[in-house]
Amino acid sequence: MRKNIGIAVLFLCLLPIVSCSSQKAPEPFDKVTVQLKWRHQAQFAGLYVAQEKGYFAEEKIDIEFNEGGPNIDNVGEVTSGNAQFGITAPDHIIKERLAGKEICAIAVVFRRNPLVFISKEGSGIERPADFLNHTVATSKDSRVQLQAMMEKLGLDFNQLKHVPYDSTYKSFLNGDIEIQSRYITTSLQQFMSAGNKVNIILPSDYGIHLYADTLFTSDKLVKNDPDLVLRFLRATLNGWRYAVENPEEAVEITLKFARKKDREVQAKMHEAQLPLIHTGEDQIGWMKPEIWDGMHKLLLEYKVISQPVDMEKVYTTRFLEEIYGKLM
Amino acid sequence: MKLTAKLTLLFVLLTTLPLCLVGYLAFVNGQRTIHQNTDNLLVSTNNLKKASFIDWIDNKKNQLSIFAKRPLIIDYSRILTSSGNEETTESKIASRKVIDEHFKISIEGGGGFFELMILRPSDGMIVVSTDERHKLKYREDQPFFKYGKKRTYVQNAYYSLSMEQALLTVSTPIRDEKGNLIAVLAGNLDLAEITEIMLQDSGETRTKETYLVNKFNFMITESRLMPGSLLKRAIYTEGAKNALGGKSGVGNYEDYRGMLVFGAYSWLPEYELAILTEMDAEEALEPVLAFRNRMLIIMFLVILVVTVIGIVVSRTITEPIRKLMIGIEEFGRGTLDQKIDVSSVDEIGQLADSFNQMAEERKRVEEELQKINKELEGFSYSVSHDLRAPLRAVSGFSSVMMEDYGDQIDDEGKRYLGLIVKNTAKMGNLIDDLLKFSRMGRTDMTLTIVDMKKVAMYAYNEMKSVYEDREIEISMNSLSNVRGDSKLLKQVFLNLISNAMKYTAGEQVVKIEIGSKVNQDHVTYFVKDNGVGFDMKYVHKLFGVFQRLHSEKDFEGTGVGLALVQKIIHRHGGNVWAEGKVNEGATFFFSLPNKGVRHERE
Prior knowledge:
The structure holds two protein chains of two kinds. By secondary structure, chain A is α/β, with parallel strands linked by helices. Chain A is about 45% helix and about 15% strand.
């Protein structure tokens, strides 16, 4: 009897809600395109999760992901309006800003840089000081980091034997390359799980602190529709939070998008990137001025950029602050 | 609602209502007690864990401070931090000595730091570490280095990429006698150890757990219920929000698994950590829920038993009443020779006894009455029968006298003789009618479905032949059939029509109307005439034997006809009555029970 009354009351309570919602025309969804940094893989798991879990829908966002690639200009896609948001490296944002592109970073997904240097275990090459007089292969992006690291330690960059980069591990295995730059989030994991033992040298252990995957948008959108930026960021960060808390499910969701439908590969990638995303310090996505300034200084010092940039315009923490509240 | 059901319901209500009330109060009381007990348990656990954590961390800080104050460590640190990037023999020795003579014991002793290191204050380089791999790495960006230059500092829970694990670092400055900063001493602690502190002694429960949450909402100790949460799970529960807001207290809220929990929370400002102890509401309330379930089962059983008892008890009460009721019904239907069998000795038993007595008495009286009636009928029969013989003699001898001695008697004598003959004939008629009447009470009836119209027609035709000189207008509607003795019912119509003929002697045209009406349980028939009628004042005399309302001189008849009609109708279980007005005709009604006959609608 009481239960019946309860149900009746519940029904009566729901009635106005139902009738209200049915009268109201559904709010239009904003169409949003994200220009990914690379092809579909676990690197963007948070976005996939936000999509699959309906976080974008909750924010009235109709999301679309555009894959990145070697010939795709991420920043250009955003400034042209083909995409509203993009993911790229922070140094790229600084450089493009200097080149007059009106873009700005709104959050950092990888707050630690996945770039590492590897050498064979037992080679005795364990620290930057050991690099001297050995063959080193660096990818284009990692050269500055290597140089900065060496010079910070007072080591002569020119004493390294630079050899061409080999994206496979062939030259590394046969000894032609003794030290090689790699991303810990990608093929390195499989290489190691295949039984290859390596020494990993982290630039962050030697004073080089760079952010990696960074979310950015155009100045125009920040100015014209800050609410959309906020909603997009909130949904994305929720997606990342869920992906961190539920790694297995995140991998499962990633597999729906990823080109490489290999659970093992995506799981390894996700596992490796987790410490870059949640560091235990600050909230997911958070950015610190000192790191941005450090990166700026580094780029200037190594002549990657010819003149200083107004850092105020390179990034904004206003959306993060709005989501998390102001933290120190 | 039947008495049995009423009584049963009463029993059930009387027993279960107090039970429900008591059960409910006990449940509410139990729930409140459990709430209080759980809150107390959680608060005390939370406080205990908090104290344990602070003890543990204070112990580590002390340990580190003691190291930092050892003169030898101060000396070695001076050597190590001033020797530049290149290792010298001196620095190698210093490094070895620091590790072997001081740090090693602490590390290997277990339960403490798993790595101890000394950092150069100028750039955060690790000049010596118990973990050789980390030597010469830089920690210049880490809070433990920045703040450790000034005071003993605890950097809680962060993920170290180079160590590939989550850890907690305590740091303290190493100063010389003058207070100048020489180095920073730092020690890494395993978060698993804090998890252990948080989760030990929670074995007696299934879901109770204590955990720490840092100011970025990350869980920094492992979850008992969801392993893999360390530094991965962000907690946004009500408890965590309150604790991170600097509040301490207890609450009932959904935890990070979405389960309803009882929680106690508190904020540790010095370490910027929230400590929460929670327990599933389901487990906490288990005893009271078990009690509720037991209560429900007991209630169900009680209702079952009480219902059965109620039915049995109310049956014993209502069964005699039911018997009594049936008995009375039977009695009303005329079955007198039955006894109500109620054995109980209570009021109902007495009532049944009284009733039985009454029924017996009634039966006795009835039988007596019947006997007397029979005697009376026999008497009148024999009287009328016996009267016939002398009367025949008088009549016979008077006739003989007239024939044989007529010439010897004068005219006056002859007239007297004629009167004697006429009067004896009349007396004969009277006796015949009387015999008929008394026989009526004795002859058996043969009950069939009687076509009343046919019977009435028959009687009317017979009468018409008797009064063939009279002009008659008859109107007869269709008459309903009825169950009865056709011979006797014909007699009824004969008598009533004859009656009508007699009392319409003064009319030129005799108008007779015969009809019937079906009522619920009987059919009423009537015979109406346009004769002299009667005064309703004397209606009660109409059906008496030898009762006449009119003088014999005006209207013929013996005064038995209507009495006979009444007798026949009564024997059929029916009724007779009449309506009339002087000079405006009379209507005679009789009704008969219509049991067992299907009537067509008129």
